[in-house]
């Protein structure tokens, strides 16, 4: 009689075997990815001694390291619930996994709708965020690297609406000439236009470019040296150019989440059915 019960349990278990290992395999990757991202964020905080001096974190929401920790932590938790839930056939963890995916899906859909409805408000928030980055450009290396990447590599822009926005920063403000700042009335090197075949990047190319009548050593005008278009306008143009790609990525992401929810719920149903038949 015991042998018959064992045979029936194994036979029923085969029904959910495919779903079980599909969910397990994908979530192992998410689990490892989340752990890696979170580790990078923690390492970045450690490098700038943030754990020992929390007063430095005056703009936590705009801290790139904090964003990595948050994204990595959420991904880690989702991957953990899906991976362990499928492997151990734990209906509670699988239910939590499905709920987490559903919540994130709803939040993403809500964010997408609100982006179109409140475009002006979001634009205003983006302007304030960029201004905060400019003001604290020299205070946080993570924020500095982020804005340099935005200006130099991603959007090829300078400032929020233009180079004059760098007056918000004490180092680049034109009045800082009185206190001997060499960067006064200038912009960061990331505002400069790239030169072909440039091996060593000129970190001083933005010096004095906002002074009236400025030309460089070979007589080049400012518009030939730095990008004069603001990052806000460049960002809007980038979104317009890549709208189809962004929409495709969002649809694929939503489809994967719906698929994950369905798989988790089907596996839970199989586990409940398995337990009912075994008992």
UniProtKB/TrEMBL annotation:
This is Tetraspanin. InterPro entries: Tetraspanin/Peripherin, Tetraspanin_animals, Tetraspanin_EC2_sf. GO terms for cellular component: plasma membrane. It holds the Pfam family Tetraspanin. The keyword Transferase does not apply. It is found in: Membrane. Keywords: Disulfide bond, Membrane, Transmembrane, Transmembrane helix. It comes from the Eukaryota. It comes from Acyrthosiphon pisum (Pea aphid). Belongs to the tetraspanin (TM4SF) family. The chain crosses the membrane at residues 21-45, 65-87, 94-118, 243-264. Disulfide bonds join 158-174. The keyword Membrane applies. It is a multi-pass membrane protein. SUPFAM superfamilies: Tetraspanin.
């Amino acid at each position: 009689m015991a042998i018959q019960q064992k045979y029936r349990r194994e036979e029923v278990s085969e029904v959910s075997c495919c779903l079980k290992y599909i969910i397990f395999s994908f979530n192992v990757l998410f689990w490892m990815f989340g752990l890696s991202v979170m580790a990078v964020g923690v390492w970045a905080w450690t490098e700038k001694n943030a754990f020992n001096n929390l007063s430095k974190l005056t703009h936590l929401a705009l801290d790139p390291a904090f964003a990595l920790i948050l994204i990595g932590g959420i991904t880690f938790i989702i991957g953990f619930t899906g991976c362990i839930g499928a492997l151990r056939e734990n209906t509670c963890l699988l239910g939590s996994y499905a709920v987490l995916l559903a919540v994130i899906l709803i939040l993403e859909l809500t964010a997408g709708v609100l982006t179109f409805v409140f475009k002006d408000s979001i634009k205003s928030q983006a302007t304030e965020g960029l201004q905060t980055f400019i003001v604290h450009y020299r205070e946080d290396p993570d924020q500095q690297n982020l804005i340099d990447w935005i200006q130099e590599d991603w959007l090829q822009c300078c400032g929020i609406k233009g180079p004059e926005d760098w007056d918000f920063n004490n180092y680049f403000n034109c009045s800082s000439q009185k206190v001997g700042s060499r960067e006064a009335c200038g912009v960061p090197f990331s505002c400069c236009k790239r030169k072909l075949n440039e091996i060593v990047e000129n970190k001083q190319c933005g010096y004095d470019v906002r002074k009236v009548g400025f030309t460089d050593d070979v007589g080049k005008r400012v518009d030939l040296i730095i990008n004069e278009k603001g990052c806000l306008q460049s960002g809007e143009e980038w979104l317009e150019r890549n709208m189809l790609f962004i929409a495709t990525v969002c649809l694929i992401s939503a489809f994967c989440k719906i698929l994950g929810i369905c798989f988790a719920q089907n596996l839970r149903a199989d586990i409940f059915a398995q337990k009912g038949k075994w008992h």
